[in-house]
């Protein structure tokens, strides 16, 4: 392969479904060529989802976030799969809201089987919705003292073992029985796969090929403390061939590849592994067999029935006890014509109940049925509608739509129902599958689908007023949302702080909105103003142990300097004289990232902090000091700015009861003992680290401290290394 000529193919594909020596070696021996049609199908799906999603999402987000303040979502997204997924949840919600309960009546009879036992009989009519008719049936049966046996039957039945496990079934069970969300379950399964415990977890196949070695994985479990006896019995008596399922032509069903214990895996990984293993053993076990007995009774003119089940052979339910036939009281032996004394006949009043909200397991079933997404993408779509605040996960992992999710779906129905119905996406998926099979042209399918959605997008834009009417009913305009916080630099009136995502400031007089950093708290910063635009500064903080910095709402949205990025604060502003800027408060290059500068937080006293303006490094220093200032002088060793510190006289670390000291936070031996370097607890993109951003770092403007390329002495690094936590 390495020495191939230019005319020879040097790219091959190794196909394997588990990370074991046998599978890897076999795959390398049987290298094949990549399937060009499959690659084209994937490319088409990616391009369609990206272009369609971006167009609709960008338009919706800019349109509605510019009008309403309490949407509580940073992105009003649309997706060809995501939106039909949300549609299923809202459709169930609508059924619940429109449901009107009806009263019905049921007859319930009880007969004495012997002195100590009675049987509860079910009415053959099940229920009636007219009370007078139900009362009539009750009156005719209440007069009877005996129930006569009309027929008896005893029939042997079997409960089939499960089909081999595929991705969709694993996700369903993980949600309904293990309490794990689909996205988390998929991530856990992928981790088990990469560690070699299970086979590849993304598969649509529920059928083992004839050549698959079923005994190999089974022998791996022969000494497991939980199911060793069942496995040894299967190996001794011979395994039962799994049921014939669906062969999608991708990977074999999900199979355990080696034994593991709870102590080895721990927590949720163990619970998922345990289910996968039990399911595999169940597929090669025997069916559960039971005897079903039924007795039909007549009480006056009405017929009643009693049913009982007795297990003959538990089969696969030994390894999957939750699937076992429920234990029911055995029925007495009787023949036609026998009579039993009637103990009681009564009429019960009940009401029909609405359906419950969809569970994740039910939603996965609907998505699979309608062809929405693939086995790999289904968890992503469900996670997206949760992340966008379109639905909330309630107890029992039920998905309840929010106001935003409901309004969006109703708006789509009002403008173009095909945007939310599963039909059009299902048709697209079929075309993509035809590309993978070589039966459809990639460019034709891509071009036709894009043309269809382009027309739909233009119609959607022209008809957005229909959705806006629904939004007006449920959400408040920007001008009526939020609380007054800081003054606008243009009109000098108060701007309102809108805390709902995405948090922002809105000036109703100028009709302008200014985005703020997310995932933190915002408050007014001492009523100080920006020297460039006269806007009042606000203070962003990620918490007492994190970082904080002032920012000008206008400068953050319209950077005044070329090297200042949009969305940044005063700690990245290079204004030469502003007391809040990087030029005045910057100390030196960050010890962890290449482009960041450590900046003094002037609001952090008496628990002073120095934080990087790019990554999440925070240094806690000089606790209980009265005052900390950045000096105009620099360190002769590392060129960082010196700090002037006024210590508390009672707690001063200086010799001879001294209270004032000027030194380098990196090189000064007194300061080194007072610095504790940590990572800030912040999720804001500006603070994710350790980042290696490209671009020019900034010092303090009028001196070279902290610029990229500044010498970083070994003693500086070794002095700070001890403080990493």
Automatic annotation (TrEMBL):
Top EC class, one word: isomerase
GO molecular function, one term: DNA topoisomerase type I (single strand cut, ATP-independent) activity
Limits of the Topo IA-type catalytic domain: 35-457
SUPFAM superfamilies assigned: Prokaryotic type I DNA topoisomerase
Keyword annotations: DNA-binding, Isomerase, Topoisomerase
CDD domains tied to this protein: TOP1Ac
Enzyme Commission code: 5.6.2.1
UniProt feature, compositional bias: Basic residues: 685-714
Similarity-based family: Belongs to the type IA topoisomerase family.
PANTHER family from the UniProt entry: DNA TOPOISOMERASE 3-BETA-1, PROKARYOTIC DNA TOPOISOMERASE
Function: Introduces a single-strand break via transesterification at a target site in duplex DNA. Releases the supercoiling and torsional tension of DNA introduced during the DNA replication and transcription by transiently cleaving and rejoining one strand of the DNA duplex. The scissile phosphodiester is attacked by the catalytic tyrosine of the enzyme, resulting in the formation of a DNA-(5'-phosphotyrosyl)-enzyme intermediate and the expulsion of a 3'-OH DNA strand.
Protein name: DNA topoisomerase
